[in-house]
Design a protein that fits this description.
Elements lengths: L2 H12 L2 E4 L9 E5 L6 H8 L2 H4 L2 E6 H4 L3 H10 L3 E3 L10 H9 L4 E4 L17 H8 L4 E8 L1 H4 L13 E4 L11 H14 L5
Parallel strand pairs: 1-7, 2-5, 2-6, 3-4, 3-5
Antiparallel strand pairs: 6-7
């Protein structure tokens, strides 16, 4: 299945509505970071991007989920061009930040879920440090907060088939790591940037 057909199918299944608030689509390198409630989150955010931006954007995903079985593996590698990271029992050689930086190079953007896993609540839990480390190593790249709404009701944890509901993907004003900004303060500010987008729903 081609990327365009997959994106159209995801939009049809989710009825998603992409909104840009204080931000416009751009092919420049970015990190799109979002709340995470469903396995459809990555594909939905990816599908909400305009085609030229989508082609330059790779979602960061858990290897133990997306490398399980030939169908998921095909979509992860050949459609989403996903960056698969070790989430369970990583070895000393597994450094997800290095993997993400190599995947970005000087061309690609990333889709990242800083919570580190799926959580069903309406608000994201405390962000893990990955976003901070990326921002510190690539300070020139825009960090775009994204709020995914209603995704967990379309494909709840443990379900295989999506339910026909309407979802939304809201992109907010980019942020950057401030000079000498402490990790916890930055991560709190990034999480709040996602929460603030709920006011625009």
């Amino acid at each position: 299945m081609t990327t365009h057909l997959t994106a159209a199918l995801v939009r049809l299944l989710t009825g998603l509505n992409g909104r840009w608030r204080g931000c416009v689509p751009d092919e420049k390198q970015r990190v799109y970071f979002a709340n995470h409630t469903s396995n459809l989150d990555g594909p939905a955010l990816w599908a909400a991007l305009p085609p030229p931006v989508r082609e330059l954007t790779r979602m960061v995903a858990a290897r133990d989920y997306w490398d399980r079985g030939p169908i998921r593996r095909h979509f992860a590698r050949n459609v989403f061009n996903a960056v698969l990271i070790e989430r369970k029992s990583p070895t000393a050689r597994d450094n997800p930040i290095d993997d993400m930086l190599r995947a970005m190079g000087d061309r690609y953007s990333l889709i990242l879920f800083p919570e580190g896993g799926r959580f069903p609540g309406p608000d994201p839990v405390t962000f893990k440090s990955g976003l901070f480390h990326l921002a510190r190593k690539r300070p020139e790249i825009e960090l775009v907060p994204v709020l995914l709404d209603n995704m967990n009701r379309i494909l709840p944890k443990g379900e295989l088939l999506p339910a026909p509901l309407i979802a939304s993907v809201t992109f907010g004003p980019p942020i950057r790591l401030l000079p000498d900004e402490p990790r916890d303060l930055f991560l709190s500010r990034a999480r709040q940037a996602v929460l603030d987008l709920r006011q625009s729903l």
